[in-house]
Amino acid sequence: MASLSAPISQLTLKSTKIPKFNNPFARNPNPNFPKFSYHKKMSVAVVAATTAEKPKKRYPGEAKGFVEEMRFVAMKLHTSDQAKEGEKETKEPEEKPVSKWEPSVDGYLRFLVDSKLVYDTLERIVEKAAVPFYGELKNTGLERSEKLAKDLDWFKQQGYSIPEPSSPGVEYACHLEELSEVDPQAFVCHYYNVYFAHSAGGRMIGRKVAEKILNNKELEFYKWDGDLSQLLQNLREKLNRVAENWTREEKNHCLEETEKSFKYSGEILRLILS
Ligand code: HEM
User: Fold this and answer.
1) Per the record, where are the segments of Basic and acidic residues compositional bias (predicted)?
2) Considering only Cβ atoms within 10 Å of each terminal Cβ, which end of the chain, N or C, has fewer?
């Protein structure tokens, strides 16, 4: 019997029939999901040493690369109204269907200001590249800071006064700064979720809010120079390459940060309804 510390290449699942509770590919039966430790649950598959068989991929999405693993965890943290793979119960106001939201321009401005602080922070961190691989994440074409600056100028020209950043944005920016120095894997989790969430649910929210309160004005925040799906694909490939150098523990640690990413972003989204 091999120990779990044996090299992955020597490990293979003892049987293809993993008990449902321990099977990371099964739908999670626990209503408290995602309040579980991804690391603990994902590392319990029974293993046996053999060199004869090819090692099996044991983590959902693993075969496609690490971004797919991050996506798998993120999609479960949506409600089923937000996305079809979502499993979370609706608790917070921003988790209600966007079609039922009653946004205000002032609230939306607070959201845009706090979002800008988050993107300013992420973009400054990767520009500075204190951790060498952050340099890979520069100039992806997905940057939002300058676009948001233009949008805030537009609101100013319309006669709105632009608020100072509020606590959800300030707290998230501090968390990102700190993680970027002490915990690069957790930082990458936030980086991935912020940019990909905006390209998916974020765009839909932008459209619906513009319909309701901006006379369908399309903000720069929701426009990209170039083909968005290609830009996203390029970033997926970069992130997959970065994570190729990580241990399984580092990957699991990154995945475990997803819940916090939803919490911080959810608080900023909630500003739209404030
Ligand atoms: C009202 C809130 C939200 C709505 C309505 C929403 C909706 C969606 C939808 C419709 C998708 C696309 C699903 C698909 O590809 O089939 C998606 C993807 C995604 N969402 Fe959300 N979402 C919301 C909030 C969030 C938050 C707070 C986060 C994390 C910070 C997040 C992270 C993601 C990620 C990482 C993807 C995958 C994108 C990709 O693979 O390209 N979402 N979301």
Assistant:
1) 78-99
2) N
Probe ligand 1: pick from 82, 90, 190, 236, max atoms within 8 Å of CB? 82
Distance between Cα 48 and ligand 1 center (Å): 37
Q: Which two tokens stand for residue 226?
A: 């170039």
Domains of the chain, each with CATH number or no CATH: 1-58 (no CATH), 64-273 (1.20.910.10)
State pTM to two decimals. Answer: 0.83
Q: Which of 21, 25, 27, 20 is nearest to 80 (CA)?
A: 27
The pairing of beta strand 11-13 with beta strand 47-49: antiparallel
Residue with tokens 């970027």: 180
The best mutation among 75, 144, 272 to test binding of ligand 1, ranked by most ligand atoms within 8 Å of the C-beta, falls on 75
Say which residues have a Cβ less than 8 Å from residue 82's Cβ, sequence separation at least 6.
95, 97, 201
The residues near 11 (Cβ < 8 Å, ≥ 6 apart) are: 2, 4, 47, 48, 49, 55
DSSP state of 79: B
At 55, the pLDDT band (50, 70, 90 cuts) reads low
pLDDT above 90 for 42? no
- Mind listing the pLDDT tens digit for each residue in 231-260? 999 999 999 999 999 999 999 999 999 999
52 C-alpha to ligand 1 centroid (Å): 41
Q: How many C-beta atoms surround the C-beta of residue 249 within 10 A?
A: 11
CB 65 within 8 A of CB 236: yes
